[in-house]
Amino acid sequence: MNMSVSIADAGLMARAARVATIAAKHADAVDAAGRFPREAVDAMIAERLLGIQIARSHGGEDADFSKIAELCSILGQACAASAMVFAMHHIKLSSLVQHGSESAWHTAFMRRVADEQLLLGSATTEGGIGGNLRNSICAITVKDGVCHLEKDATVISYGDYADAILITSRSNPEAASSDQVMTVFLKEQYTLEKTHVWDTLGMRGTCSDGFLFKGTAPAEQIFPKPFAEIAAQSMLAASHLLWSGVWHGIAADAVSRAQAFVRAAARKSPGAMPPGALRLAELSNMLQTLRSNVVAGLKAYEDAKDDPDKLASMGFSVAMNGVKICSSEMILPIVNHAMLICGIMGYKNGTPFSLGRHLRDAHSAQLMISNDRILSNMSTMLLVHKLDTSLLG
Amino acid sequence: MNETIRGLVTKFGGLPVAVDQIADDADLYSAGLSSFASVQLMLGLEDAFDVEFPDTLLNRKSFSSINAIAATLTQILDKRDVA
């Protein structure tokens, strides 16, 4: 096994760092008001970060998941909501990049995303189905080359702000609930009637309101591949790896704040070890565990990405699910540990060591595709899949 | 072999349609085979044919239709005969 994971190039990281500076400036205001991180997303557009995953031949930069995950982490250290919008856009874009090249419409749309820096939204959640995205109640209808879909989408992240929405449904009104397709609808092709307001503990800036979606578009905008294949071959890995990048960013910023607190204490009392110093060493180990987990996941993806059979295998699915469980469970103790170090300065809002936003944002991780659902799927697969017991895989 | 497989799909597949309505090459997932049911089916197949599916064959494609399941089983049984 080749252990190297490509590192984001300096130019890309510098662009992301400029976006992060803007995102950090507005993070508390975005969180307090539960508003869309407009400034940060405008900066992503200005730095042309929304199209980087697309092939150079279609106007993009060929950025792989490792680079994008690094960017998610950089943004996550500044504003988790902005980073999550960036991650979710790229998760949808991965479906387009990996499954759209066989269709002329989707290929042309990819070029538009790169040229015009379009923001892609997602509508997989549905009333009556919840987060089980591999099932749909709603069905798309096709007549005379035109498709129509209505969906009670209980969550569409940044639905009001997306330029296009990739939405799942049954493939036709007679299809089984698992016989799904995904369709791209452009902003001018759908209406959204708000049904739920996103007023949450954390990740408030993602504005993941609920909507009644009604769309009509040319039928060629339906992805030619079944959604089951798209979900298995690109969405599973993209979601768990890019989300984990964001969560690593939240955790890393909490650790940075704790370290800054300890260093400030050390400077104040030269010669004496500050009270939080030992905990900081523990915290550094915890962050290393989280980072190792994400890096191993990115490596597993790099190894499998060119082999559709491997991507569709249970072993890969178990590995990606494991990455999600581990990173979503690790960030809470990390932020908590950082708060023990920073004490009241971490608990209070508006200090350089405040960790309330981090803690609230971190709580979303275990719920975004509930860990219980993921563990249940894993436990089913482990009835037949035999775990890889090698160290390097 | 296909008849035995059909029997197991009936028993474990939990499909909304009768299995005799499904062609040998029809997609079982489109017919409503859930991932949980597919694993139950795999366990049933392992038991009935006294085999263990290697991880390389544990993917959607291997169990996507009655014919695909038969091909997957044949691949394992042939290898065993050679050994």
From TrEMBL, chain A:
One of its GO terms (molecular function) is acyl-CoA dehydrogenase activity. It holds the Pfam family Acyl-CoA_dh_N. InterPro entries: Acyl-CoA_Oxase/DH_mid-dom_sf (IPR046373), AcylCo_DH-like_C (IPR036250), AcylCo_DH/oxidase_C (IPR009075), AcylCoA_DH/ox_N (IPR013786), AcylCoA_DH/ox_N_sf (IPR037069), AcylCoA_DH/oxidase_NM_dom_sf (IPR009100). Residues 232-367 form the Acyl-CoA dehydrogenase/oxidase C-terminal domain. Residues 23-103 form the Acyl-CoA dehydrogenase/oxidase N-terminal domain. Keywords: FAD, Flavoprotein. Its cofactor is FAD. Belongs to the acyl-CoA dehydrogenase family. This is Acyl-CoA dehydrogenase.
Automatic annotation (TrEMBL), chain B:
It comes from the Bacteria. Pfam families: PP-binding. Residues 1-77 form the Carrier domain. This is Acyl carrier protein. It comes from Metarhizobium album.
